[in-house]
Every structure is written in C-alpha cells, then in structure tokens.
Write a structure and sequence with these properties.
single chain; 7 helices; alpha/beta; nine-stranded mixed beta sheet; about 250 residues; globular; Rossmann fold
Length: about 250
C-alpha cells in the first residue's frame, strides 16, 4: 500500500512494511529464468510480489499498480524487437517508469533495456561472460556499497552497453567494462546475484548452445559445481534490495 501523505522516514523501509509493503512487478522473459532470491526477499519483507510472463503475452502491469519494477534476464537481445511483439511495449513501460520516477531494477537483459531507455548504446561484448567470475565494485557505489570490493557473481551475457548518460559506474570486471550502473531511480546489473542452484542448472540445460570456449566461459559442469556460491550471492542481493527498499520508501513518504 503506497504511503501517500505519510512523512515518516524510518530506515530500511520499516514504514513500508508497517503499511502493507511495496508493490513489486517482476517481468519475466523466459520460463527458465525467474526472479530467484528476489522473490524470497520480497516475501520475507512482506512486499506484494507479482510476476508477469511477458514472453507469454501476459498483460504488462499498469504504472500505478507497482512501486518497484524488476526486469529480469532472458536469452534474447534488446535488438530483437521486430520479432518479439511484447518487447516494444515493455520498453515503453520502462521509459514511462523513468518519466514517473518509479524505481527500475534491471538484471542482465533487463539492465540492457534500462541502459537503452537512458540513451546508452547496447552492443555485442568482445567476450561472452558465462559462468562464475569476479566483479569489482567501484569506490563509493551507493546501492552496492555494502558489498565486498571484489566478489564472485554468476554471469550469462554476450552483450553489453556503454555507461548510460546521467548514471554512475557501480561495478566492472575483466571481461566487461560496465557490470553495473546506478542513478537515483534505477540500478542495472549485468550479472546475476539472484540465481539459485536450480536456476543455474536450468540455464545450463536450456541455453547450452550459447556456451563456447572463450576466456570467460565455463562448462555447464563447472557452473553447476560452483552453485555453492549461491548462498553468498543471496545475501548480497538482499543487501542491494534493502537499499532499494529504502529509496522507494523515501519517495513514497515524501
């Protein structure tokens, strides 16, 4: 329930939870790439969490129906608009969120959509990143500030983007110059902190044809074997979501 007129500035969204929590809409682009631990975090916090299967032409949520939009990954490219009827509509929703100052969290493909909406160029990266690789957090990165300066994350992307205008670089890696960017009302993550062991196994099975022999590509067996990292990733995803929750609470209580 939005807190219209409420002036409390309780830390970490306590006021949100006392008043029914945030309303979160999560857009899915493939049946095997779900919200993972993002959904678990929302349940613990008492937030309303709704998934929308855009790949199945499920109707997109109305702007007024959510406080936070989460845009997940998928095997397609942001440049596949001509062959995917839903993509143009989804991109328009992301742009409307930016205009209305609704917070957008984009993961992998979702971050590429967000970057494009902000005027960034999305293009094929020099190398694919598929598997477990280190990410370096930049100094002073606000929403990622609680994370270690260097940590392991799960990756599955072949495209990247230039740092979008008006945003700050939040993370990078050896294989990808822009791993994360942020601004007051949004965060884009190329990497996956939300992944569960089951999610990694599903990706390795459904997208096996993507895996090559580049310097930042692991075998399916290596990826599944590394799933012990998922517990650490869940904590890091939760730390980021806590900070996003606080920003949304500030907007709703102002």
């Amino acid at each position: 329930m939005p807190l219209a007129g409420h002036k409390s500035r309780s830390p970490k969204g306590a006021g949100l939870r006392n008043n029914g929590g945030m309303k979160i809409a999560c857009l899915l682009h493939a049946p095997f790439e779900g919200p993972g631990t993002i959904a678990a975090w929302a349940a613990r916090r008492g937030h309303e969490f709704r998934t929308v299967s855009v790949y199945g032409d499920e109707a997109l949520p109305e702007l007024e129906s959510f406080d936070l939009l989460v845009v997940m990954g998928g095997p397609m490219s942001v440049h596949d608009e001509a062959g995917l009827g839903w993509m143009k509509r989804e991109k328009a929703l992301v742009r409307r969120c930016l205009e209305a100052e609704r917070f957008v969290l984009g993961v992998c493909l979702g971050s590429q959509m967000l970057a494009e909406a902000l005027g960034g160029r999305v293009y094929r990266n020099r190398h694919k990143e598929i598997g477990w690789f280190a990410v370096e957090r930049t100094a002073g990165s606000g929403l990622l500030a609680g994370l270690p300066e260097r940590f392991t994350a799960f990756h599955w992307h072949g495209e990247t983007y230039d740092l979008p205008p008006g945003t700050a670089l939040a993370a990078r890696s050896l294989g990808c110059a822009v791993q994360a960017f942020e601004f007051e009302k949004g965060l884009g993550l190329q990497f996956h902190l939300e992944m569960t062991a089951a999610g990694i196994a599903a990706l390795a099975r459904e997208c096996a044809a993507d895996i090559g022999r580049g310097p930042y590509e692991q075998t399916a067996e290596e990826m599944v074997a590394g799933s012990g990292e998922c517990a650490e990733m869940a904590g890091r995803m939760a730390a980021i979501l806590d900070r996003i929750e606080a920003r949304v609470a500030n907007r709703l209580s102002s």
